[in-house]
Structure formats: structure tokens, C-alpha cells
Write a structure and sequence with these properties.
The chain is α+β, with helices and mostly antiparallel strands. The protein is built from five helices and seven strands; from the N terminus they run βαααβββαβαββ. It is 30% helix and 30% strand. α4 links the parallel β4 and β5. α1 packs across α3.
Length: 179
């Protein structure tokens, strides 16, 4: 775990983001609304545009990418001063090893750096592990819910929902503020 480096990708590193995003979609299709097939069809410009809209944070062990998360800086939520944390993925052998926590810590620092007041994270209500992890980090559940779109399941058959969890950035919550 000590060899894990977490960093924000530069906009010109769109191909690195594309590769890890497609890998995440293939490995954990149930965790994402989009599919690998859909996003494989994106042209280079669409990937470049994605790098401008949100900060992409990568976890690496040497040259090997082992996790990713994104921070949307205000355009994905209707809450003033809030950004959205989304697309969290850690390769299966690294789950439970602290990689996700390191990604979240960096996301919180990035959020503060760009002036956000809180991070919003939508988590499946039936995903106990994700809810517990987000709660342990300091995210708090809200009463806001939305239907979870599940690929391959008709809307009327989908009972799952996501809840919005919120993490205040005004209090560092033990997360170092320096990048």
C-alpha cells in the first residue's frame, strides 16, 4: 500500500483515463450506468471533453493503474457549492487495501482546492459495503433518493435506488488539506 501513488490526471492524459474507465466498465458492469460497449464507441474528442468537465484521479502502483475516481465540479448537482464524486473503481485484488480511501482523500483535497463546500456521492441503498465505506470516510446519508438505473432491467422491474450521501469539505475531517 505504501507504493500506491494517487494523482490528478492532466487534461492531456485523456487516453490513460479512457483505458482505466473502459477497464472498470468491463470488470464491474453492474456498478455503472454506462457500458463498455457504449463508451468504446466514443471518439477521442469526447474523451478529451470529459477531462475538462471533471477532475480524474488515478491510483497507481508503479506504472500499473489500480483505481480511479472522478470529481465533478458543480455541473452534476443542483446543490450550490457541491461537487459530485462518481465513477469510483478499484481493481478487485486491491479492494479493502486502502486504495479507495486514498482516492477519496485526494478527491476531498481536490474539492477544497477548487472551492467546493461539499461532495455528493450517490450510493446504491442495497450496496452495504459501499454505504459502510462512504460512512466510514465521513459521508452522511440524506433523505434524497433516486431510482438506480440497472442495465438490462426494465424500469418497472428495477426496485433498486440510490441515496445521496454528503461529505462536508469545510471541516477537514482528518484529511490533510495540502496537495
Amino acid at each position: 500500500m505504501n507504493d500506491i501513488r494517487v494523482r490528478v490526471l492532466d487534461e492531456d492524459e485523456w487516453a490513460t483515463y479512457r483505458d482505466v474507465r473502459l477497464r472498470a466498465l468491463r470488470e464491474s458492469p453492474e456498478a455503472f450506468v454506462a457500458s463498455a460497449e457504449e463508451e468504446e464507441a466514443f471518439d477521442d474528442q469526447r474523451w478529451k471533453d470529459r477531462m475538462v468537465r471533471s477532475r480524474r484521479i488515478l491510483a497507481q502502483d508503479g506504472d500499473e493503474v489500480v483505481g480511479v475516481v472522478s470529481v465533478g465540479t458543480g455541473h452534476r448537482t443542483n446543490i450550490p457549492g457541491a461537487g459530485e464524486l462518481f465513477g469510483l473503481w478499484v481493481e478487485p485484488p486491491r479492494r479493502g487495501s486502502g486504495v479507495a480511501r486514498r482516492l477519496m482523500e485526494k478527491a476531498a483535497r481536490v474539492g477544497r482546492q477548487v472551492g467546493l463546500k461539499q461532495l455528493v456521492y450517490w450510493v446504491g441503498t442495497d450496496n452495504g459495503r459501499a454505504v459502510a465505506f462512504a460512512s466510514s470516510f465521513g459521508f452522511r446519508p440524506t433523505d434524497d433518493r433516486r431510482p438506480m438505473r440497472i442495465r438490462g432491467v426494465d424500469d418497472e422491474d428495477a426496485n433498486s435506488e440510490e441515496m445521496m450521501m454528503v461529505y462536508p469539505l469545510s471541516d477537514t475531517g482528518g484529511v490533510p488539506t495540502s496537495l
